[in-house]
Amino acid sequence: MITHFHDSAARQALANVNRGIEREALRINADGSLANNPHPKVLGSALTHARITTDYSESLLEFITPVTQEVDALLTGLTETHAFTVKHLDGQQLWPVSMPCYVGDVADIPIGQYGPSNIGKMKTLYRKGLTKRYGALMQIIAGVHFNFSVSDELWQRLYDVSDKTLSLQDFISDGYFGLIRNYRRKVWMLPYLFGSSPAICQSFIKQGTAPFEFKKMGKGTLYLPFATSLRMSDLGYTNKEQERLNISYNSLAEYLAGIKRAIRMPSDNFAKIGVKHNGEYQQLNTNILQIENEFYAPIRAKRVTAKGETPSAALDRAGVQYIEVRALDVNPFSPVGIDANQVRWLDLFLLYCLLSPSKPSCANEQVEITANLQAVILEGRKPGLMLSRAGQAVAMKDWLTDVFADLSSLASLLDGDEGTDYQQALTYWSKAIDDPEQTLSGQVMATLEQQQLDHNEWVRKLAEQYQQFFTDYPLSPDVDAEFTEEATESMLKQAQIEAADDMDFDHFLAQYFAKTSCFKYVD
Q1: Do the domain assignments include residue 387?
Q2: Domain hosting residue 186, numbered range
Q3: 521 falls in which pLDDT band (50, 70, 90)?
Q4: For residue 93, what is the domain's CATH number?
Q5: Tens of pLDDT along 325-380?
Q6: Residue 200 phi, psi (nearest 5)
Q7: Measured on CA atoms in the order 402, 405, 409, 414, is the torsion positive or negative?
């Protein structure tokens, strides 16, 4: 497929990538403890603000960039959002890694509050359900999500050389699901290169025995010698109940049918919690998924939703618009949790996944995908690590070498005759093929060993360093005023939503869940 992109117009269509970033970060107090005060009003409404909101907890901030085609503009905008926020935190700091800070009592973790409107109460109840199902500690693990789509011009070019048996809309959805299948086959590369949680504070292990045979460093640091991303292990975002869902990525129709089944599939374990106790809601329902957002996946097909529309209903209405990469740890060596070299490598990797042939996946391949991912998460830096590719044993190093060779051709195309940014990014990360210590997880472990610091102590020093960076960041008066105005407008929007409510919460929930049975794709 790459042979179709050697003229200048085609290369431009390929290079016009649309990107957005969602970065999560815990608010902490100066002593390193979790901040448990409400989301600061000066930042606006967490319910309606487009760029500054919260995720699970009142303490877990989420920064969302607008979509842009310029890498520098993307990261500048993300930096400005961080700077405005930190300047208004009254001395609180941002925790600059994925795994949480010291948490004494999980009961002190505050659930996100979104006001008295029906949608606000639903968002809070959903989070309460997550607490009941998985515990609050799991829900304050932070990550970075990378949103990606290609240009309309690129889709048109790809469509023009296709057999045109599908409509353009269906062709685009089919193409994105091909990308998703290829991504899943090679998703282990992300924790290998960018995983940065090989160590945790021992306070994270609250009860029972740890699921792994950790080694201990200093006073309270637990680690695995070759781990890359404990965030993605059984300590982090996993859901054993979801393992039996078997959601297919072979087409949009199959995917939506699987999601529809999942949000209707009862769970015996979650039924024990109940929906209400003494008249008070405990969770939205007793199904495996309360809502589809609860489906934990390292990548998602997405479309911007209309008012009152569920994510799957949006996909059902108009097909896939972009994909969301969800397998990224927070990069502790960047003040904003991700850097330009990572963004450009992700561009290359996702374009490679889109343009490469992508056969349908099967249950046996899913077993292989899961095994490869778990091996890299727990032992990714182990010398001589072997994985499985299409049923055949392959050295991880050899597989990386093969993929990087293909990415090199794409990098040259994207850079054109005068640029070098993509080739430089690829060169930077290619060092990690032969030297696992060049990965982010390798750099984390090397830093802890060289500085003789506990993980918690090291992260606190980083938090102080980045707080100073953002405090000193030269935010222009115009940008500051823009954020201030957006905060005010978001509070007004929330008030309007609250004033417009015209039904009680029980009826609101019934109406919401009725929408989930209205897909044109049925099983």
Answers
A1: no
A2: 2-378+444-517
A3: very low
A4: 3.30.590.20
A5: 999 999 999 999 999 999 999 999 999 999 999 999 998 999 999 999 999 999 99
A6: -140, 165
A7: positive
